Each structure stands twice: as structure tokens, then as C-alpha cells.
Amino acid sequence: MTAPAVSISEQDADALGGDDSILMRQRRDHARLDAMMNRWLSEDLPPGELDALWMDIVQLVFSHAFAEETVLWPLLRRVSPDGEELTRQVEAEHQAVNDLVARIERFPDDPRRAEWIRQAFALIRQDIRDEEDELLPRLRTAFDDRKLRRIGAAWEAVRATAPTRPHPGVPRRPPGNALRGVPLSAFDRLRDLAPGSGPAARRASLAAAGVAAGGAVVLAVRSARRHG
Q1: 79 partner at 20 to 30 Å CA-CA among 11, 36, 71, 116?
Q2: In sequence order, what are the residues at sequence separation of 6 or more whose Cβ sits closer than 8 angstroms to the Cβ of residue 5?
Q3: Using the 8-state DSSP alphabet, how is residue 205 labeled?
């Protein structure tokens, strides 16, 4: 990759379009992921809390990546001459994380689980660096502050209703990712519900999640087209 301007990790909120811009929203998620991974690696938590922390990481990683692939990377491919190359590399990183976490979920008692999780963390950290140093600065160059805030709102809407678990068969690009990922989002969020939720609550959550996810993706795609 050819380095563009300055990494967003080295700029303040004013330089990145304000607290609600897509660049600041991305950076906050990245910082939260970094803190959670460091906490997991400290290994000073009891097993139950360690497992709960891992699931929090998984949920954030997959909702974050899905929103990027739905809202941000199509925009980047439109406005940057090397957008295709850049997004293809990051999509490959996302797929590698997806495959590895799917393996961890498939074999929860495998003695290699902790090592697989560490490998997933290394992939996530590399993805964060590529995004903050290479991809996201190009959005800063292409869009003014107001548009960065609008893109941030669209990204946030999709992230809030995106799939939260690995689905290796779901395409990485729209419209395929939305067509196959949105229905799975509702089922993911059922699995994420706290134990003890009754059948009626689960049915209501399924319906609400499905409707909200579909609406969020439609709005995000329309917004991306307006800003492209």
C-alpha cells in the first residue's frame, strides 16, 4: 500500500470532522477493541468473565466490519483511484478473522482455542492499522466535515443492526452481504440476548431486529450513493 496523508490515529477530532464524523466513530470503536483485547490478554479474569469478554469482542468486530463493507468501502472505491486494491486487502483481512472466529466457535473445547484467539487479535490489530493509516485518510481527503458526519450516521445505523457472529459464506460486498447478512443479523441478536429471555421476548426481538436491520441497510446504501 502507498501511504496517503496522515494516519487518523495522529489527528484530533477537529481535524477529522468532529466527534460524530465517520473517522472519529471508527477510531472510538478501534480504541474500544484494543482495550478489550488487552484486557483479555491480561489473563487476570475468571473463566466466565473471560468468555463474556470474548463474546463482546466478537459482537463488536463483526458488526463494525459489516458496516464498513456496506457503507464505507463502496464509497472508497468510488473516490480513490486505488480504492479497489485497498478495500480488497482489508476484505481479505475481514474474511480471515471471520474464518478463524468461526473455527473457535465450532470447537469451543479445543486446547488450541486460546492460541486461535491470540491469532484473531493479531489479525484485528493489523486490520485496524491498515484502516487508520491507509484507507480512512482517503475519506478525509475526499469529503468535507458535513459529509463525514452524514456518512458516520449511516455507518452507525448499520452497525447497530448488523450481524454479530461469523458467517464465512456471506459475501464481503453489497448487495450480496446485505441480502444474506441482514436475515442472519436477527438470529445473531437472538443468540446474544441474556439468558432467561422468554419466548415472547425472543420473538419480538427477532421481528424488531429483522425490520430494523433491513431498514438501516437500505438507508445506508442510499446515503452512500448520494455521497459517492
Answers
A1: 11
A2: 137, 140, 141
A3: H
User: Can you tell me the distance from the alpha carbon of 97 to that of 95, in angstroms, rounded to the nearest whole number?
Assistant: 5
pLDDT tens sequence across 180-211: 877 787 778 777 775 444 444 434 444 444 44
The whole-model pTM stands at: 0.81
pLDDT of residue 216: 47
- Residue type, position 157, single letter: A
Closest CA to 228 of 86, 114, 95, 73: 73
Rg of the chain on CA atoms, in Å: 18
Residue 192 to residue 202: CA distance in whole angstroms: 11
Encode pLDDT of 45-102 as tens digits. Answer: 898 999 999 999 999 999 999 999 999 999 999 999 999 999 999 999 999 999 999 9
- SS3 for 62? helix
Query: Could you tell me if 149 and 177 are in contact, meaning their C-beta atoms sit under 8 angstroms apart?
Result: no
CA 173, distance to chain mean position in Å, is 13
Pair 124, 33: CB distance under 8 Å: yes
Q: Are 197 and 142 in contact (CB under 8 A)?
A: no
Confirm if 75 and 228 have CB atoms less than 8 A apart.
yes
Helical axes 47-67 vs 22-42, angle rounded to 10°: 160
Are 85 and 98 contacting, i.e. CB atoms less than 8 angstroms apart?
no
- C-alpha to C-alpha distances, 24 to 30, 50, 180, nearest whole angstrom: 10, 28, 29
* Burial of residue 30, with CB atoms counted within 10 A of its CB: 0-12 exposed, 13-18 middle, 19 or more buried: buried
